Amino acid sequence: MSTDIDWQHELDGSFGAGHDLPPGHYVAAGRTAVRRRRATAVVLVAAVVIGGGAAWASGQGSAVRGDAPVATEGPDGQREVTAPDDASQRLDERERRLERMRRQADRPDFLGEPATLDADGLVLAPGAGPVLERVENPMGYSRSQGQSLGIRVMFRGREKYSLLTRDVDGATSMGTNDATGDFAGWLAGRVASQRVIDGTADPAGPSVLESPDEWLSIGPDGGIESATPFVAVMEVREGADLVGSFATGSDRAGLARLQVTGMVQYVAWRVLAGDLEVVPAPGSFDSMTAFVAWAGEQYGSGEGMR
Description:
With 306 residues, the chain is of the alpha+beta class. Helices cover 31% and strands 30% of the residues. Among the domains are: 109-179; 212-306, no CATH class. Strands 5-6-7-8 form a 4-stranded antiparallel β-sheet, covered by helices on one side. The chain has a 4-stranded antiparallel β-sheet with strand order 11-12-13-14. The chain is elongated and about 160 Å long.
């Protein structure tokens, strides 16, 4: 007896005896499925066309990005772009910021001085004023050279002397000191110093350093005054006790703080038989008080300042 199993026969027998269907049954079912899928596709295409047409008819859609320009069509058929309100506001704000920056850039820098010059003239710093006296164009500049102005002005509760200049390119300079001595003499000294800086100084100017006896003179009222435009009298103290032995035999004697060609210079002075003698001090001092103390010691010891 054979032990081989006919698996194909066993598998067919497990399904039982079903009813046989003709081939046309399966073909008809397949054709029905095809027609159903085609009908569904036609409906979907129609829906897309109708929806797209409605969007086009309503201005190509109502959802526009808020920050994007909106295109409109002019009468000539050309399209122009207009910005929405919020973009216009941002543009206005940027222009305002730029304008503020321009104003700040044009704001004068006083560098601690009471005033400066701009294209229109004098500009006072915060805390400056009133102007007690002004001298127009003490430098004698022509229009092509620039502007200059000398002023006596109150600044933060103290009186100041200032010489202000501005060249045609807008570069400025300010020279200021506390108000001591006469303003005219101080201004003359500052002008002389500025002319050296400008390169327009009188060639005779430097020679004044070699002749201190010509720095000062006695004015009509008996006061000690500048004798040259290159020297400004800043402060004068008179009294024989200030200079000890230097005052011996003199009619008058004292000390003074000057500006000579724009540089600070301390001197002792005395009047002998009507002639004014001036002796410059070597070195520099922090103040007139410091110079007075030093000069008293020098002349008290007999060494003097020479």
